[in-house]
Write a structure and sequence with these properties.
Elements lengths: L8 H7 L3 H14 L5 E5 L5 H8 L3 E5 L3 H10 L3 E2 L10 E7 L8 H11 E12 L7 H5 L8 H10 L2 E9 L1 H13 L7 H22 L6 E8 L2
Parallel strand pairs: 1-2, 1-4, 2-3, 4-5
Antiparallel strand pairs: 5-7, 6-7
Length: 229
């Protein structure tokens, strides 16, 4: 991603209304976070999660290549850089990145750079869209290069020198909703009322179903790894 205007900014603003979904992602970040140390949010967007983690008392640093969004983050008082190159190697204890890697053409090479920023044994959590069969007008509108399966994401981690600790799918009902969306929506737009309905009614059911389906399928996939050296 370049330091230019990101076309998905309005989407990020709409997604702040998905309260249950965002709470799930916040818990996922916290689950693997160390007790202390420097935390790096790569592709922080408008700072939705960085602010939440910061209010919990963690030292969060943001990387956001979009000029408009980075300025938004600056106004919250959080430290932010436009480029990952501004972060020192071997200086970060934990990296999390939500729905970002799919925007990067050369994902493995970028992940190698991210890994260098970790201290030895530092951890990284990635959460990305799953299954190319779900690639829709929405993916195209927000400039996604791909969606992932556990196997392809694991290959990226291994090639970047990361030891995989966990890889699971998430939002199993969302898989089928995304298929329907792909068939009926050609605009790539997100309807706010539909989003809120899904978040309030279907997402809690989906989280329950994930107990049984997380090894098989889901709208998203997440992976946790550790820098080996």
């Amino acid at each position: 991603m370049n330091a230019t205007l990101y076309s998905g900014t309005s989407t990020l603003e709409i997604m702040t209304n998905a309260k249950r979904y965002n709470a799930f992602l916040e818990k996922l970040i916290i689950k693997y976070i160390p007790n202390s140390g420097k935390i790096l949010d790569i592709g922080a967007g408008i700072g939705t999660f960085a602010q939440k983690i910061n209010t919990r008392g963690y030292d969060v640093y943001c990387v956001e290549p979009d000029n408009k969004q980075s300025k938004y983050i600056e106004k919250t008082g959080l430290p932010v850089s436009l480029s990952i190159e501004e972060v020192e190697d071997n200086s970060v204890d934990y990296i999390y990145s939500l729905n970002v890697l799919e925007h990067i053409e050369n994902d493995t090479e970028s992940l190698k750079i991210w890994t260098k920023k970790l201290k030895p044994c530092g951890k990284i959590l990635l959460y990305v869209p799953a299954f190319n069969i779900l690639y829709s007008s929405f993916d195209k509108s927000v400039e996604h290069y791909r969606r992932y399966r556990k196997k392809t994401l694991a290959c990226c981690f291994t090639n970047a020198g990361l030891q995989i600790e966990k890889a699971k799918y998430a939002d199993s009902i969302g898989f089928f909703v995304s298929l329907i969306y792909k068939w009926i929506n050609n605009t790539g737009e997100i309807n706010n009322k539909s989003l809120v309905f899904y978040d309030n009614v279907l997402f809690p059911i989906s989280r329950f179903c994930d107990f049984f389906c997380s090894g098989l399928f889901g709208k998203n996939v997440y992976i946790v790894g550790k820098r080996s050296k």
